[in-house]
């Protein structure tokens, strides 16, 4: 197996096989079976109904009841999304990533990706933070330290912020894509892949500095140790519970306050020319972009709910997916980018990704509507 997975040529057949196994484990079993069990059965039939009955019976104030179990309730929205929807997905992803990491396959992946990344002014080492970004872009931004030049670190940080959805967001996106025809799926895939390549290539041309040489040791392929995988998975889940879940709660509180104070309606009105006019989405989609800065997967879940309720047609689903995938970094990644790259660079990346994501989504909406494309 070590010889068959060692680049250049003979290792290529192993790549789609590995990705296929990861997809079946994370995308089908994790995002499908486990999420269905947690969201629909555990929370949908037991936890949330019990919580609503208990809160309604015990809490005397209607405002506090809504805060806990209302439409923007801490229990019915924040904890349901964070535990029932996201936790099963990131758990399966971290297990799969741990197997690739512990087996020694990740460095081989870097060697196979070197030629592609060289076209973007990078080298194969960039695949490591890019792949880790599929778990969490915040952690991936920290791992850009493995890149040897400042230019490479800035380019990869930009690509992580722009076109690499984290595991939670990616799972919601895949769930929405699964309901779409092949043509609609191809638009999303093509847009994201083209964006990563073109923006990476352009950034490598515009930003000053030199790229480093690609030197990487290939460890022998080994049988992953269950104990190692469990320890790393539990450590990453602990990070998620401590760092990410509070952001879900903060996002829900902001939505609740915004709803009660009328701020959401003000933001909806302010964003209406862009959301309704350029993107062709319903006014309430503005909420998803507001909370998308807190957590991009939080915004994706909002679009998922709108699609399930029949508020989005096929073109609107495609446009919303493109917009939220390429949207500006979440607040946690933004703060880490400030720490790693500086305030000026972080602000520049956030501003560029916001403008770019909305522009690309608006262009797709215009082309599909103008040419009456049927998806």
Describe this entry's structure for a reader.
By secondary structure, the protein is mainly α. Helices cover 76% and strands 0% of the residues. The protein contains 16 helices and no strands. The protein has helices at 14-58, 62-69, 74-103, 105-118, 127-133, 137-143, 150-163, 167-177, 182-206, 226-261, 263-278, 285-292, 296-308, 314-325, 331-341, 343-370. Helix 1 packs antiparallel against helix 2 and helix 14 (314-325) runs antiparallel to helix 16. The longest helix is centred in the first third of the chain and has 45 residues, at 14-58. The model has no long low-confidence stretch (mean pLDDT 87).
Q: Could you list the spans in which at least 5 consecutive residues all have pLDDT below 50?
A: none
Q: How many E-type strands? A: 0
Oligomer: single chain
Overall residue-averaged pLDDT value: 87
Biggest sheet statistics: none
Q: Between the first and last Cα atoms, what is the distance in angstroms?
A: 42 Å
The proportion of strand residues reads under 5%
Structural class: mainly alpha
List keywords for this structure.
375 residues; mainly alpha; 76% helix
Write the layout of secondary structure elements.
Layout: H1 14-58, H2 62-69, H3 74-103, H4 105-118, H5 127-133, H6 137-143, H7 150-163, H8 167-177, H9 182-206, H10 226-261, H11 263-278, H12 285-292, H13 296-308, H14 314-325, H15 331-341, H16 343-370
Helix pairs in contact: 1-2, 1-3, 1-8, 3-8, 3-10, 5-6, 6-15, 7-9, 7-16, 8-13, 8-14, 9-14, 11-12, 12-13, 13-14, 14-16, 15-16
Task: Give a quick rundown of the structure.
The chain is mainly alpha-helical and 375 residues long. The chain has helices at 14-58, 62-69, 74-103, 105-118, 127-133, 137-143, 150-163, 167-177, 182-206, 226-261, 263-278, 285-292, 296-308, 314-325, 331-341, 343-370. It is globular.
């Amino acid at each position: 197996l070590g010889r068959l997975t060692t680049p250049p040529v003979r290792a290529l057949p192993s790549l789609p096989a590995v990705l296929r196994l990861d997809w079946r484990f994370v995308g089908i079993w994790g995002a499908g079976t486990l999420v269905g069990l947690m969201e629909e059965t555990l929370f949908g039939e037991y936890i949330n109904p019990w919580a609503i009955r208990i809160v309604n019976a015990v809490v005397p104030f209607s405002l506090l009841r809504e805060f806990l179990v209302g439409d923007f309730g801490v229990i019915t929205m924040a904890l349901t999304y964070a535990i029932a929807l996201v936790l099963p997905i990131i758990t399966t992803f971290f297990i799969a990533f741990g197997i690739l990491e512990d087996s020694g396959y990740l460095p081989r992946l870097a060697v196979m990706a070197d030629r592609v990344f060289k076209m973007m002014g990078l080298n194969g080492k960039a695949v490591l933070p890019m792949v880790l970004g599929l778990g969490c872009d915040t952690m991936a931004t920290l791992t850009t330290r493995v890149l040897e030049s400042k230019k490479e670190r800035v380019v990869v940080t930009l690509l992580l912020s722009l076109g690499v959805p984290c595991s939670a967001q990616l799972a919601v996106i895949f769930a929405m894509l699964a309901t779409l025809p092949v043509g609609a799926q191809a638009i999303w895939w093509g847009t994201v892949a083209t964006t990563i390549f073109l923006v990476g290539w352009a950034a490598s041309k515009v930003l000053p500095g030199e790229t480093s040489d690609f030197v990487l040791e290939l460890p022998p392929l080994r049988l992953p140790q269950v104990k190692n995988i469990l320890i790393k998975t539990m450590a990453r889940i602990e990070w998620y519970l401590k760092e990410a879940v509070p952001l879900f709660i903060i996002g829900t509180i902001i939505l609740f306050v915004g709803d009660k104070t009328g701020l959401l309606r003000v933001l909806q009105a302010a964003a209406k020319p862009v959301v309704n006019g350029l993107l062709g989405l319903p006014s309430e989609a503005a909420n998803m972009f507001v909370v998308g800065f807190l957590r991009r997967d939080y915004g994706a879940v909002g679009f998922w709910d709108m699609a399930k309720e029949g508020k989005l047609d096929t073109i609107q689903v495609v446009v919303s997916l493109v917009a939220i995938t390429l949207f500006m970094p979440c607040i946690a990644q933004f703060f880490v980018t400030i720490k790693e790259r500086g305030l000026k660079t972080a602000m520049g990346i956030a501003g560029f990704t916001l403008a770019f994501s909305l522009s690309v989504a608006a262009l797709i909406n215009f082309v599909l509507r103008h040419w009456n494309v049927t998806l």
